Amino acid sequence: MELILITTLALALTYLVYPYFSRLLIAGGLVTKNYLGEPIPTAYGSCLVINYLFILLVGAYFNIYSAELLKSCLFFLLVVGIVGLVDDYLGDGENKGLSGHFRESLFGNRVTTGFLKALSISLFALLMVIKWSQGIFWSGVDFLLIVLMANFINLLDLRPGRAWKGFLLLFLVLAPLAEAIFFKLLIPILAMAIVLLPIDLQGEAMLGDVGANFLGSILGLSLLWALPAIYKLLLVGGLISIHLYTERVSLTEVIAANRFLAYLDAWGRK
């Protein structure tokens, strides 16, 4: 019953808040052009972050989430939201990949906001695994799970709705393997997707780094608590392989070359 309550709250809150938030983004100058060249508000994922943090507080009040889990989620996701919004607001918008940001920041002539974002998420993910993981090896696995999942969803966010679709597809694939906390943490986000995914698919607003990193971070964080160890290991291996592959090959080209992935990618767009 409590889960139905916070899911309904997530849906209603997003439906009511998003129009005002969209105007706030435009007033604040967070406007960009979508892939069709149309001016739209960006970083609407910040609305997703704020709504979700409020839902966590309500869920803790009704004992859906423990006090320790609440503090960890609020602590980590607030950092993810802030550094993602900074990257959206101050970043150059160029997709360099993790290695590109690290090379430019460590060996180039400037520190990129993408590098600062990756460093911040990594440091606070490390604090999460120190608190929750058992042993050095599994701490390393959990660390990579959170960090690589956050970046993977961000890698997908190059076309309308693609980051959301990646998140939803991973949810469906991993749900049969996961424990109850997985659903408690992620079902409210599925409710928010009912409102936000159509907006994204129509190219009316951009999720932004703040939203894409948030979706990846909460997915990785939920799997820290919900996924059996052997499946974590397999998933991290897959994420490492994807990241190494996409350093050499465009993910968009890979999707376009596969009939099923291309159909799934284009579904719902105008």
What can you tell me about this protein's structure?
The chain is mainly α. The chain has one domain (2-266). The protein contains 12 helices and 2 strands. It has a two-stranded antiparallel ribbon with strand order 1-2. A hairpin with a 5-residue loop joins strand 1 (31-33) and strand 2. The termini are far apart. 39% of the residues are buried. The mean pLDDT is 89.
Query: How many domains, in number, for the residues?
Result: 1
What multimeric state do the chains show?
A: single chain
User: Any low-confidence stretches, pLDDT <50, length ≥5?
Assistant: none
Mean pLDDT: 89
What's the helix-strand series? HEEHHHHHHHHHHH
Number of helices: 12
Short summary:
The protein has helices at about 1-25, 45-60, 65-90, 95-105, 115-130, 135-155, 160-175, 180-200, 210-225, 230-245, 250-255, 260-265, and strands at about 30-35, 40. The protein has about 270 residues and is an all-alpha fold.
Secondary structure topology:
Blueprint: H1 2-27, E1 31-33, E2 39-41, H2 45-61, H3 67-90, H4 97-107, H5 113-132, H6 135-156, H7 162-174, H8 180-201, H9 208-226, H10 229-246, H11 251-257, H12 259-266
Antiparallel strand pairs: 1-2
Overview features:
270 residues, mainly alpha, two-stranded antiparallel ribbon
